[in-house]
Amino acid sequence: MINLTDRRVSAPQFFSLLFLSVLSTVFMYISSPKIPIAQTETLLRPIVFVVISLVVGLPAYFIYKNNVKNAEKGLIVKETKFLKITTSLFGAVYFVGALKTILRFDLFASSELFPGAEMTLFIISIVIVCALLSLLGLGALSRAGVIFTFIVVCATGFVMLSLLEEISVLNFTPLFQDGLGQFFSDSLLFSLQASEIGVLITVLPEIKGNLKKGFVWWAALSGITFVAVLLFVVGTLGVFADTQLFPTYTAVTLAKFGLLQRMDALETAIWILCVVEKIALYFWVVTKNLKLLFPKVKSSILCLAQVIPVCGVLVFISGNLERFSFVSYTPVVAGMYIIPVIILPVSVLIYLKKVKKSEKSPQQL
User: Fold this and answer.
1) Which of 251, 288, 295, 331 holds its CA 20 to 30 A away from the CA of 242?
2) pLDDT tens across 54-67, in order?
């Protein structure tokens, strides 16, 4: 029997997984006319990302503290219609998140790796692999995340070192040419890419260790990594970055080291690791939420219930470039962040506070 509630997950292990997940976003960042990347202030956007992440992570932390106090008092919050609705929304949002990530990777593979090639079967095979990995549980994904993080950091650092000679100071523009207002607007849209933060209130019961310290380290290291990646994108490509669908990949294609004239194959393999971990995490989150709604249904069946519609949508969209607009559509990106990261955690926190006030004696499910 597969255990989806493996509690043997340390905070560093989980945040390594979360780091890979958010890193896949900047690796496959899609250039948009609304958010130009060829600006020096692009390097400052991750600072805003760190601040926003720390602020929006507070509700999850308070929920965790509330649950710890309730457990110490023997209080178990009743299962209500509100919690069932919340669980359903979480599942729905991260199902769309998994689909969005898969479609983004499909677009990347079909437009950059193998232009013009039919990638549907290849992407479907990755979906199946991610689904199977998600059934191994959060513990397996997180422990693999530690190993993958080491590999990703070393490989990415190696590629960046090989790009040093390609950087030109002429590619850096004066700061805040479009004003501070535009900078903060662009930084906000950049920060909305990290919807992974919302999984915190789902996984908190499964993690041991100092969660507050782990989250702060995750936000800081993610921000530093983003600055490093964007530094090389802006420094090597300049205004050319705004003409590329995937500017990070374009910058990587310039990397070479000795006899290795093309480093993009190495980095692409690394990116696939990040994407697989992210999709598997989202599948796990959805399966766990479905399990709470349908406790008698096997986890493998609930996971299969996700794979089938994902593959159906993939077949419909793959190969049609116009249909991929869903991936970077601003209302979708904003909704994927605001609902699970802000609205639902705050709603749950308010609900738990009301329960704490109204219940003076221990209650059972």
Assistant:
1) 331
2) 999 888 888 877 76
Tokens encoding 350: 């308010």
- Facing residues of 208 across strands? 10
Q: Which two tokens stand for residue 177?
A: 């040419």
Q: At what angle do helices 81-108 and 264-293 cross, to 10 degrees?
A: 160
Q: Which of 92, 114, 102 is nearest to 327 (CA)?
A: 102
How confident is the model over 240-276, as pLDDT tens digits? 888 888 888 888 877 665 545 566 677 778 888 889 9
Residue 207 pairs with which residues in a beta bridge? 9
Separation in Å, CA 260 to CA 43, 252, 257, 271? 29, 13, 5, 19
